[in-house]
Design a protein that fits this description.
The complex is a heterodimer of chains A (274) and B (167).
Chain A: H1 3-24, H2 29-109, E1 114-122, E2 130-133, E3 146-151, E4 154-164, E5 169-173, E6 180-185, E7 191-196, E8 202-205, E9 218-221, E10 233-241, E11 250-255, E12 264-268
Chain B: H1 6-24, H2 34-46, H3 48-64, H4 72-85, H5 96-121, H6 131-163
Helix pairs in contact in B: 1-3, 2-3, 2-4, 2-6, 3-4, 4-5, 5-6
Classes of the chains: A alpha+beta (274), B mainly alpha (167).
Chain lengths: 274, 167
Amino acid sequence: MDEEKRWVVGVFFFLFLVNIFFLTFNFTGKIQSLKKIFFYVFSPVINVTEDTVSAAEGISSKAHRLLSAYQENTILREEMKKALHWKNEYDRLIEENKRFHQLLQLKERLPYFTVAVRIIARDPHGWYQTVIIDKGSRDKILMNQPVIAVQNGKEGVVGRISEVSSSSAKVLLLTDSLSGAAADVQRSGINGVLLGRNEDQLSFNFVTNDADIQKDDLLVTSGIGEVFPPGLALGKIEKIVVNKYQIFQTISVRPTLDFHRLHELLVLIINNKE
Amino acid sequence: MKKIFFYPATLLIGLILNIFWDNYFSINGVSPQLTLLVLIYLSLREGPLIGEVWGFFAGLSLDVFTSGPFGAQGLFFTVTGFAIGMLKGKMEEDNYLAIALLVVLTSWFSLISFIVVQNIFSTLSVRSINWIYWIAIPIYNIILAPVIYLVLGKWQDLWQSSKNGKL
């Protein structure tokens, strides 16, 4: 056996015996102390590494929680959007139901056959005061039939049918400058012609200066002209200007209905001759 | 950096990896014997002296973190380091089949030595070890061995080159 091998074997036996010594006197205080010393030497390294791994795990866990929260947030937002949509839809249906209820009451009261319609579009240019409804000639709707509505329990004239297709029709509103209706002052029976001005107010024309007319007098259709039946509310007198040098008064009328808030209408199926 | 620091540095890193692999990557309580794989690598490359000395310290270090008798792993690692170191130059380093066989035999030897040492030096007698360990541990070791050897090769080259002033 050469020197190197002897050295190797010698070291081996020495280490072997040291191990046997440790094992034999394993439960003695000195060996246990030695073990503890080694443990104290190594444990900080292990602790630091453990902390690093835990921190990395913590970051991963936090990132996972953050991602989960983000996903949950996204889902909840979507659900909230849906809930809001349904709430809005619910509110809308409640309001629509109220309006239909009022319309139904009016329908039952009127001595005419009526068709309930819904506004599906308004004049996109705003140049004309017209709306488009969802029913047409298939539902017996014809030109010049009067259209009425109910708002806040008050019924009033909306306008007349100005164009008809098979499934839709155009309603010329009372506020349009092409619109006109023969009207009476309900209180005094004074009659005149109510004309649209392409604005929110109407003009009550051909009322002489000496006519008995007051602010807040209600104007109703007179039944003259074959379009509107008599007795339908048109509006109330808002302003009266008497001109000394003219025969007729200048009278502004506030329509009974707010034309910006129209949704459901009633078409009176009369005047079935175009 | 001197080459002599390569061994304690490798011991420290191997030890830390061994402990953390046990904590985080064990499969049903079975984890590879990383320190043993390092010992096999070092013993085959550096011979019995390095094998037994490194094995001695590595084993004792592992003993510090176990509840088993102090010196049990030290004895096993010392014997293994010496025995495998004696094979230096007698088998090709890149003969993976031979190394795999060596890994399997060493893994079984570690289990046998555990039973022997426990029964002789501990109050807790061990009659047998679940057969799963006899199969799973060597397989786990074989799978990991090429990776360990590759990494250790690079790691050792780093120290060798630093000796030549490259690092």
